[in-house]
Recover the amino acids of this structure.
């Protein structure tokens, strides 16, 4: 049996390209609190995830997930609660019903949930304990140690719409416009709304009739879509290296379910990547930290939606030409390494397409769960090879698409 080092040496002699570290992802099902459904909303720098889950009795409870364990955060005395934000100290904010059934903003810290006086909901918290939320009159506010700062014309901060950074800059919405709020000064960004802000003051959101958008240094960049232009896309969160996550419809939605074919997306370096699903046809990404860990939700093998975590994996990847891919050593190498091919796409079926790099050989790519790629696109695909002779197949783990129009 050839050793890993022998295989690597042969790869080098074949001229298959340099060794590189490529960011790949594995998707982890975070489970539930005993019910059939859960959703994740935010992730912090140490990989803690918050959201909400159905419990065994059918009520919704906020949770925090830490190192493989999902913890029920309880309620403020009512039946239901949801968590929408957390900081790097593990302090969690959200909304909960109280004993009278009214919605109240809460902060959870060190095992105890407390009401945020004057707030009906809270969607984000920074490391200074400044909370972005909605006041009893539905105005957007910053709450800190019982003191409330009104954000002027910014509208009611929804659970998935708005963020606050360590400088107390706020991304929000006012009168149908995405806004950036800085010390009482509002900057108009686009028609639509703003979802998140990083420590550099970059803002992401949804521009009406266009989709996912980024505002940075006074310039708006429209990020595009994974499917046809009219399917829509949303930028929901970003980190400090300007990696952006969200979702985009990959095909026409099912009747009555506008999100039925949405897939979670990662946008970086000008390229949009489909993060795939646990099972089925739906996923969404709602948070990303500076380590590239991504939280969100996906249809699971049970058919219900579960909170999930996309965990980056640094794995050896070799760039390879299609012609070199037909050398028998590549099958042996695929047991230890991943390979990347690049070329023009011809769609073969709903789960497969071929890639032509001009070397005179085609590679068939099998990519179950992926869509939004069309004949004529150019794609860079990473995966493992299988098949022998004239039937060389690359089982895709991830691909990036460049659409030339």
């Amino acid at each position: 049996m050839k050793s890993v080092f022998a295989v690597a040496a042969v790869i080098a002699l074949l001229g298959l390209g340099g060794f590189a570290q490529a960011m790949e992802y594995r998707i982890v099902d975070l489970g539930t609190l005993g019910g059939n459904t859960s959703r994740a909303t935010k992730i912090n720098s140490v990989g803690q995830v918050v959201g909400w889950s159905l419990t065994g009795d059918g009520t919704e409870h906020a949770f925090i997930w830490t190192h493989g364990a999902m913890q029920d955060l309880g309620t403020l005395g009512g039946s239901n609660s949801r968590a929408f934000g957390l900081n790097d100290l593990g302090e969690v904010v959200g909304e909960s019903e109280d004993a009278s059934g009214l919605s109240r903003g809460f902060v959870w810290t060190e095992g105890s949930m407390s009401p945020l006086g004057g707030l009906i909901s809270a969607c984000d918290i920074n490391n200074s304990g400044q909370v972005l939320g909605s006041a009893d009159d539905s105005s957007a506010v910053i709450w800190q140690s019982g003191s409330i700062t009104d954000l002027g014309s910014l509208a009611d901060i929804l659970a998935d719409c708005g963020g606050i950074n360590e400088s107390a800059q706020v991304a929000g919405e006012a009168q149908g416009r995405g806004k950036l709020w800085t010390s009482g000064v509002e900057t108009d960004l686009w028609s639509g709304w703003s979802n998140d802000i990083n420590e550099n003051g970059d803002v992401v959101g949804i521009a009406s009739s266009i989709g996912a958008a980024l505002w940075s240094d006074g310039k708006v960049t429209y990020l595009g879509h994974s499917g046809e232009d009219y399917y829509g896309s949303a930028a929901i969160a970003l980190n400090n290296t300007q990696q952006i996550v969200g979702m985009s419809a990959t095909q026409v939605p099912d009747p009555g379910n506008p999100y039925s074919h949405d897939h979670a997306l990662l946008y970086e370096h000008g390229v949009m990547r489909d993060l795939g699903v646990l099972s089925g046809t739906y996923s969404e990404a709602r948070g990303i930290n500076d380590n590239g860990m991504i939280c969100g939700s996906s249809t699971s093998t049970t058919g219900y939606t579960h909170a999930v975590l996309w965990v980056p994996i640094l794995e050896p990847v070799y760039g390879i030409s299609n012609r070199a891919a037909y050398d028998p050593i590549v099958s042996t190498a695929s047991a230890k390494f991943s390979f990347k091919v690049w070329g023009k796409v011809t769609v073969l079926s709903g789960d497969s397409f071929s890639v032509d790099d001009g070397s005179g050989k085609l590679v068939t790519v099998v990519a179950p769960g992926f869509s939004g790629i069309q004949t004529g696109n150019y794609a860079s695909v990473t995966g493992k090879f299988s098949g022998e002779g004239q039937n060389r197949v690359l089982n895709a783990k991830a691909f990036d698409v460049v659409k030339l129009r």
User: Anything to note?
Assistant: The CA atoms of residues 107 and 114 lie 5 Å apart.
